[in-house]
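note to self: dont lose this again. the chain is below, predicted strucutre after it. 147 aa total, dont forget to put it in the shared folder this time
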Amino acid sequence: MPDQETIDRAREDAREGKSPSTQAGEFVREEIHHVREGKHGASSPKQAIAIGLSKARRAGVKLAPPKASASLRKKAERDEEVGEQKHHKASRTRSRATERALKREPHSTASKSALSRQAKSAAAKRGKSARSQAAVKAAHTRKRRAS
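---
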């Protein structure tokens, strides 16, 4: 369950008209923080990001489905459905099992260097036009913030 503070920050982003990925960024930031403070670990930076995105979907952030395997898309769809339903208490046994499994994972996956490597490899996979488009969008939002 995400912290109430994280949910509030994401809702504030939504009110300000920020994109779903920006709203989800709050949940990813929280997850990275959990790994760094030792609450649990993660097998890779990608896993920590994926956990954060899953929490975001369950909290009602309207994220696009991942461009990945059918099983992953199905999981994301399920997370969205859960986000739209009334919340019920999670299974204690399952929660504990997940927590114990994550506690065995390393904490170094949320280090600055590991996240930097992840960001660089993710950017390299994108095409030149996609990176250019992201830069144009960033410049556009900077102009809007200034006024």
